[in-house]
Specification:
Strand content: 25-35%
Number of strands: 12
Radius of gyration: 16 Å
Distance between the termini: 16 Å
Helix content: 10-25%
Number of helices: 2
Length: 221
């Protein structure tokens, strides 16, 4: 809630395997609380991938200020640590895929990222934002089996005029009105109700209550 973004840390946290000693392909998805007061409600999500034999990871994410002055919010870079803190907030590992399954995902990543329809725009609430991008990757690459937390505000944002879609995990369906109001039901998502971008619901696979700003109880937010 406090601090200066200019001095906030981006330290590696040791969640990603060292590429020099892990030769197999790796795909990981992370979530960190956003900087400042927004972190009380929302997380920033990103994907990190390393093909088999590669000596570094590539991060796929959407960063809002990159869209300023007509730029693209979509960032695909191998400069930062895959598991770095997000402005001082330690990341939580949402998904960890290794080996041939990871390689299959990596082969589909360039086309999936390129098809993201909001690269030139960013809106913190209700979207499109970084979580909208990860949800897009989940729908485009079923092998991700991606379930985003309730704190990933923007994950339910759908293109204008589209009200129905598969959930990011591919195990259910959702209805959404511009990410502001909607409902989702799926094997992995459980039952979710979206009101003004905030999600409440029930997780049936891993019994928990889903709460806005908190996430799953019991469980991590």
């Amino acid at each position: 809630m406090r601090g200066d973004w200019r001095t906030a840390t981006h330290r590696a946290t040791g969640l990603a395997p060292d590429p020099t000693s892990h030769q197999e392909a790796v795909v990981q998805i992370y979530a960190s609380r956003t900087f400042g007061w927004r972190g009380a409600f929302a997380v920033h999500t990103w994907l990190a991938a390393k093909p088999a034999g590669a000596d570094r990871y590539t991060r796929y994410e959407v960063i809002g200020w990159y869209a300023l002055r007509g730029g693209s919010a979509l960032s695909i870079s191998d400069h930062g640590a895959p598991d770095a803190e997000w402005y001082g907030a330690p990341p939580r590992l949402l998904r960890d895929v290794r080996g041939t399954d990871a390689q299959t995902i990596i082969e589909k990543l360039p086309r999936a990222a390129d098809s993201y329809p909001y690269a030139a725009s960013y809106t913190m609430w209700p979207g499109p934002n970084s979580n909208t991008f990860l949800a897009h990757l989940g729908r485009e690459i079923p092998e991700l089996h991606l379930t985003l937390p309730t704190t990933a505000i923007g994950k339910d944002y759908l293109p204008a005029g589209q009200f129905w879609a598969r959930t990011p995990s591919g195990t259910g369906y959702q209805m959404s009105v511009s990410g502001l109001f909607g409902v989702a039901a799926g094997r992995d998502e459980g039952l979710e109700l979206n009101v003004l971008g905030l999600v409440i619901g029930l997780d049936f696979r891993h019994p928990a209550i889903k709460l806005p700003g908190i996430g799953n109880v019991p469980g991590d937010g």
